[in-house]
Amino acid sequence: MTPFAPWRIEQFETLASTSDLCAERARAGEADRLLIIAASQTAGRGRAGRVWSSPPGNFYASALLRPGIPAAEGGLFALMAGLSLLEAIEQSSGTDAALRLKWPNDITAGTAKLAGILLDATIESGRIATLTIGFGANLVFAPEIPGRATTSLAALGLRVAPNHLATALCTRIDHWQHSLIADAGATLRASWLRRAHPIGAALAIDGGRITGRFAGLAEDGSLLLAQGEQVTIIRSGDVALL
């Protein structure tokens, strides 16, 4: 299989947002496979416009990819991002930390959130021209999130250096991109399911607007939600375990 070009990793002490800088570089024509890391952020962003608290000591990074895939397949990259970060954390810490994925790409320890991921894409002619994947992981501190339990690797007794995590993350993204090319996401979905909340887990979408039980993943990475005898396809939304 044709190898990908090498990653370029840039490190900064402080940025407003690693994802904003990635998007700016993309608009300027930057090639893909760029990872930008900041020791802290002053305007970090979470899902749905939420602020992502970014004190020094945690991991803040954004990757720029140019996948060129149909926009309908973007959900697989959301799964890939979460699984890549989880595996990179375990590789960097040298242990199986018993972490779990919550659809599509939050990483949890028990019911507490450890890491989150935000994807921003530009679409051209129905294909994803650029994809910025923002990663935030609580290595040392667990900032408070209203209504959510949070934790950190330090609280779990684990220590991970941000630069080691960055290198491992690039390696795992490479692995799963090759896998996507090889079998259109079948291995990725199976591997994601092995690390996620179990089939049958009770879920609430968007604060309880929709509830049901986890019924697996669609081929495009969407969540399948069982509501009685009916299965609903969920392509976006905030998911909480009940």
TrEMBL record:
The keyword Transferase does not apply. GO terms for cellular component: cytoplasm. Keywords: Biotin, Ligase. One of its GO terms (molecular function) is biotin--[biotin carboxyl-carrier protein] ligase activity. InterPro entries: aa-tRNA-synth_II/BPL/LPL, Biotin_CoA_COase_ligase, BPL_C, BPL_LPL_catalytic. Pfam families: BPL_C (PF02237), BPL_LplA_LipB (PF03099). It is an enzyme of class 6 (ligase). Its EC number is 6.3.4.15. Residues 1-181 form the BPL/LPL catalytic domain. It comes from the Bacteria. It catalyses: biotin + L-lysyl-[protein] + ATP = N(6)-biotinyl-L-lysyl-[protein] + AMP + diphosphate + H(+). This is biotin--[biotin carboxyl-carrier protein] ligase.
